[in-house]
Structures are given as structure tokens and as C-alpha cells.
């Protein structure tokens, strides 16, 4: 039984990573629909096979399902009020959270029967696959294959790695997960190769050229340092040495990148020059300002619609990359509040008993999930990782695993 369950778990998770999106013309809009339909069908088939072979499943008692139900209800009401319920993109938005619920349920049940260390090994495979794609992008190799999964990683802005995701800041969500994951494994197992993995991840995150990704890295490092410093099993001299080493190491990597690879990070350098007053505003920041002004205008025009918003197509032809702005325009104040509650619930799930996080055998996944959840709060200013194709499916798969660890591994 366990053998079949592990095989199904591995197939389900690998399919999240390796199902292509850019297989039909139509750009990112078509890719989003293709992935949701194709991968949704794959996961539904896997769930049917799972029920047929394992013949049991369980729905965990978890408050996150209440938040997801509330969000679904708000989305339906908003689209009904704005006569947009049966529109193509609106229909996709309406079924989004029921689909996420199904993904959480599937991965919770698959994890419940699997051994925790099998899940840990699966996360390592996740790291390997995303890293291979990143290396392909860095050296511009196997481009036709890579472009089945993403596009736009190499442009006039220099190299902006995004691995198997559409945008670099979506990739940054999982880089933060991996940094926390490997840091906890190093503390638990004392294997130095995991420090090398963290070094590689640090470089990858810098190459995303995302300002919000850099800010999320600051919070990840702060969380890990705090966890390390409050760990009673580590002596004070080691704490001081590691803390100093992390700060020096970070400065050295940043210096090397800016001095020797400046042509690859022109996007970041342009922003720094703008801050210094030696250059005009960069395109990315200008886009964000335009989107903010558009949101302000739409909110001013809403009137009584402010509670439930303007529906899934509320911003018209303008794409609001900021998740908070998108939710308040599309689903109103109620939608925004529910979305923020969802992100904070992720953080709550990851945090648990903070002082004991590094002492548990499940600490790698739990700490990685915490770092990912905090990064979601920050990276939502640049994108909507919990709604974008691929990243959303993977996040909710990890939520299912986290529920299993929180419920089953405590028994």
C-alpha cells in the first residue's frame, strides 16, 4: 500500500513541475488557461487512481478551508453583481479556490500515508529540477525546451532567472522555501553540502533582479538568524561566529555580483541609479506607480461596490501585478481582507511553536514553509504567487503537506 502511495505522490508532485504551459499560441493568458486545465485534469486523474488503489481519504479539520470557502463566496458574489460569472477568465477565477481545496486535500492524503523523509527527498528533487532550469537560462541552452515552461527570462534588462515560473518573483517564493529548508537540514544533520546549496540559492535569488525578492530574502535571513540564536542547543560562540559569517558572506556575494556581473543585473543597477538621482525612474517601478494610480482611480469610482469590487475583470485591460491591488479592485474590501487572512494563516501554520522549530525532525519542511509564507506577504506587492499558474498549484500542494506535518506528525 505504501509503495503505491509513494509512487502516486511522486507522480503528482513532479507533474506540477513538469507539465508544460506554453504549448499553444496566445502568450501568458493562454498559458495560464492551458496549465490550469491540463494540470487540473492530471491531478483529478491521479486522485481517481488514488481512491481506486488506496481506497481511503480523509478531510482534515483545518480553518484554512473556511477562509478558502469565504473567498470563493466573495468571488461568486462579485462576479454575479458585475454580470461576469460566466466570462472565460471570471469562470476560471470562480473555480480557482475549489480547485486549490482539491489540491490541498490530495496532497494531505498522499502525505498522510507516506513517510516524512520521502517528502523531504521530494523537496530535494524540487530543488534539483528548478535549479537545472535556472542553469539552462543562465547559459541560454535548450531554449526551445525551456520556453515550453516560461518565457521572457533574458531581455534588455539583462538576465532575470525564473526557472519553471513565468516571473522571477514567483521563483523567489520557492528560493526562500529552499533556503529555509536546507538551513534546517544543515542544523539537524551537520552536512556541509547543504551550505553549498544555500550559496547557489542565494546567487539565484540575486539573479532574479527583483527588488521585492531581495526584501523577502532579508526577512528569510532574519527568521533563520533568530531561530539559530534562540536555539538552546547551540553555544554562544558558535552563534556569534555563524551570525558574523552570514553577514560577511552576504556582502561578499553581493560585491562579486555587482562588480563582475554588472551586465547581467542592469535592471537592479538602473533602479539604484534612480535612487541616487543619476538616472530616470526604471520601467518596473514606473509600471507599479501606473498600476497604483489606476487602482486609486477605480476605487474612487466604486462607491457602494467597494465591498465586493468590480469582478474578476474589474481593472479592464490593465493587469494589476500587485495582488493586494488586484484583490481590492476585483473583490473589494472583503476580498482583500480574506486574502490577507489567508497569507497570515500560512505564516501561522509555518510558525507553530517558534522556539522549538529547529529541534523537530520535521524542521526542514516547517521552516522552509515559514520562510515561503513570509515571502508571500512581501512578494504579493509584485505579483500574485497564490493565483499564478504553476506557483499556485505548488503552494497549495505544500499547504497540504504542511497540514499533514502539523496534524499527523504530532501523534
What's the structural blueprint in terms of helices and strands?
Layout: H1 2-18, H2 27-54, H3 64-81, H4 88-113, H5 116-138, H6 143-146, E1 154-155, E2 158-159, H7 168-189, H8 193-206, H9 211-229, H10 236-260, H11 266-276, H12 283-302, H13 323-351, H14 363-379, H15 391-407
Antiparallel strand pairs: 1-2
Describe what this molecule looks like in 3D:
Helix content is 71%, strand content 1%. It is mostly helical. The chain has a two-stranded antiparallel ribbon with strand order 1-2. Strand 1 and strand 2 form a beta hairpin. 41% of the residues are buried.
Task: Produce a short descriptive summary.
With about 400 residues, this protein is mainly α. It has helices at about 1-20, 25-55, 65-80, 90-115, 115-140, 145, 170-190, 195-205, 210-230, 235-260, 265-275, 285-300, 325-350, 365-380, 390-405; strands at about 155, 160.
Keywords:
mainly alpha; 71% helix; 1% strand; two-stranded antiparallel ribbon
Spatial shape: globular
The count of helical stretches stands at: 15
What is the ordering of alpha helices and beta strands?
HHHHHHEEHHHHHHHHH
Backbone CA Rg: 21 Å
> Mean pLDDT, as a whole number?
81
